[in-house]
Design a protein that fits this description.
The complex is a heterodimer of chains A (478) and B (110). Chain A is α/β, with parallel strands linked by helices and 478 residues long. A six-stranded parallel β-sheet of chain A has the order 3-2-1-4-5-6. Helix content of chain A is 60%, strand content 6%. Chain B is 73% helix and 0% strand. Chain B has helices at residues 3-23, 31-41, 45-55, 59-87, 97-104. The radius of gyration of chain B is 20 Å and the shape is flat. The termini of chain B are far apart. Classes of the chains: A alpha/beta (478), B mainly alpha (110). At the A-B interface, helix 1, helix 2, helix 3, helix 4 and helix 8 of A face helix 1, helix 2, helix 3, helix 4 and helix 5 of B.
């Protein structure tokens, strides 16, 4: 077969791989087919990788050195990925996704850097190559360090609180300016409009890499832990874009298409998450939200708090027709998902209908709470999205709030509070409300939750896991 | 600009639109697996790593390619495996009791 034919087949295989990614993502729109979708996507990936190897082999481009780099690299990287993927706890999923995101961005940056070194000084060093190289390097490097910091924050290695350094924002601006200057330099250099020799260009590239790496750190450090769903989505979008830029650099269609798909996915999720907190992306990136000192409560009608005993709460739950559970990240922190599901089992055995109301930002990445509950064996038809469950609170006999705070605060409905305008779960519309909480402490937004002083609300002061276990025992004893 | 580049840009833009279209239909329940699945798709940079490894001719290039291949492979293998692990937990009905005991004994059990 002639080389041209081989390339045609390889190109078609790449196209098939990219199409399978789209089909795979399409199957993700229902939990029933999502697993198959992921397998289809993995098949597409395998096809793309094999086609690439065939392509190189047919050109005789696979030297022993190159082949050993690929095989050894795959074994090491793939092995590490496999081990991490199999051993990670579901609560630690956001930091793992962030870590994979970091290495993906890093790889894209390396591909762009390497290609630039190869074309430097040759006629292939065109304006368009320079543009895509710099974009790939900048986005890839920012994602690499940014995702590592995000991962560190989620893992608790780096403080989850917003870290604000005096003049930090100035540093960020200077870094951005440096990168832009470098960009202009390299592009004009490639176009012949600026006379830079090769050494100067390498220095400029080095400056761009360094500023992008530091920029990633200074961008994520000031952002608080509960804003992480937005940050992770944004960085995911960045990595996709960086992969697409690397695709432009090495002129490979499958990288361009896949990168664009991921860029779009991350973009949509970023917007959804920001909307669910009613905050703009700029406001989140600017950081410092919920820094601890926070805003003092916008004095709601200061009412009294009614405390419930376990037995009272158990009776309310056991004789309800419909119980809506409102889980928040606090549930996962207390590792109480299984205890919650056991309570639900006991209630369902008594004929109580149980549903779960999941706020879009419950957890540390988009949809995180659903995964945690699925792991605890909660059937997915019971997991309800905010828009779907909100009209149902009116007919709920009991709303059981565990580990959720700001997303249940009715103060969001009126102006003048830090959470004003944020879409919330209409927990206060339920006939009665039980809140399991250790203390009257405030949530991320740093304001008092008016739900707790609602006359319909009973507070059960306990650790989530202990409280749920006692409730289960009490319901069983009835 | 040459023809190839223009076509590449056209493909890029169309792929973004396809991405928006396909992904806006994914329910919030599946957003974490979606993100993790999208994450594994950008593991396609592994292919980029393979290509630069083949084109490498200096020690520096070999080193860069090696790191890119390691990173890309970690991204792609880890991404697909962890997504699959999450998705197999989504069940319409509760799983039979015995697998449950295994799972509740520790978060890290597969």
């Amino acid at each position: 077969m002639s080389q041209e034919w081989v390339y045609t087949l390889v190109f078609l295989a790449w196209l098939l791989g990219a199409s399978l990614f789209v089909v795979g993502l399409h199957f993700m729109n229902s939990p029933a087919t999502a697993r198959r979708g992921n397998q289809i996507s993995a098949t597409g990936m395998t096809i793309a990788v094999v086609a690439t190897l065939v392509h190189l082999a047919s050109q005789g481009a696979l030297s022993t050195t190159a082949l050993s780099i690929i095989v050894v690299g795959f074994v090491i990287g793939g092995g590490a990925g496999l081990w991490l993927a199999r051993s990670v706890a579901m609560t630690a999923m956001p930091q793992l996704v962030s870590l994979f995101n970091a290495v993906g961005g890093g790889a894209a940056a390396l591909v762009a850097i390497d290609d630039y070194l190869r074309v430097l000084g040759t006629e292939e060093e065109t304006v368009s190559t320079a543009v895509f190289v710099v974009l790939g390097v900048v986005i890839g490097c920012v994602t690499f360090t940014g995702s590592l910091i995000a991962s560190g924050k989620l893992q608790g290695i780096v403080s989850g609180k917003p870290i604000l350094v005096p003049g930090g924002r100035l540093v960020t601006v200077v870094l951005a300016a440096l990168a832009v200057l470098g960009f202009v330099g390299l592009v004009f250099g490639a176009g012949g409009a600026a006379s830079l020799d090769e050494t100067a260009k390498l220095v400029v590239l080095g400056v761009i890499i360094a500023s992008a790496l530091v920029f990633g750190v200074t961008m994520v450090l000031p952002i608080g832990g509960a804003d992480m769903p937005v940050v992770i989505s944004l960085l995911n979008s960045f990595t996709g874009t960086a992969a697409a830029m690397a695709g432009f650099v090495i002129n490979n269609p499958v990288l361009i298409v896949s990168g664009a798909l991921v860029g779009a996915a991350g973009g949509i999720l970023t917007k959804l998450m920001a909307d669910a907190m009613n905050r703009s992306l700029m406001n989140i990136i600017a950081g410092g939200f919920g820094g601890g000192e926070g805003t003092v409560a916008e004095a709601g009608p200061g009412g009294t708090v009614r405390e419930l005993t376990v037995d009272d709460a158990a009776i309310q739950l056991a004789y309800a027709n419909l119980v809506i559970v409102v889980p928040g990240y606090g549930l996962a922190v207390a590792q109480a998902q299984h205890a919650l599901r056991e309570l639900a089992d006991v209630l369902e055995a008594r004929g109580v209908e149980v549903k779960y109301a999941i706020h879009p930002v419950a957890g540390r990445m988009p949809g995180h709470m659903n995964v945690l509950l699925a792991e605890a064996n909660v059937p997915y038809p019971q997991l309800k999205e905010m828009d779907e469950i909100n009209p149902e609170f009116e007919r709920a006999d009991v709303a059981l709030v565990v580990g959720a705070n700001d997303v249940t605060n009715p103060a969001a409905r009126r102006p003048g509070t830090p959470i004003s305008g944020m879409p919330i779960l209409d927990v206060d519309k339920a006939k009665s409300i039980i809140v399991i909480k250790r203390s009257m402490g405030r949530g991320y937004a740093g304001i008092d939750n008016e739900l707790y002083t609602n006359p319909k609300t009973g507070m059960l002061f306990a650790d989530a896991k202990k409280g749920l276990t006692e409730l289960t025992a009490a319901v069983k004893a009835l | 600009m040459n023809q190839d580049l223009l076509f590449a840009i056209a493909i890029f833009v169309l792929a973004i639109l396809v991405g928006f279209e396909v992904i806006s239909k994914v329910p919030a329940t599946l957003h974490t697996p979606l993100m993790s699945g999208a994450n594994s798709i950008h593991g396609i940079v592994f292919v980029g790593g393979i290509l630069i490894a083949a084109a490498a001719d200096t020690p520096l290039s070999y080193a860069l390619a090696f790191v890119a291949v390691v990173f890309g492979a970690m991204n792609v293998v880890g991404g697909y495996v962890v997504t699959d692990r999450m998705l197999q937990m989504f069940r319409r009905r509760p799983a039979p009791a015995q697998s449950e005991g295994a799972r509740s004994s520790g978060g890290s059990v597969q």
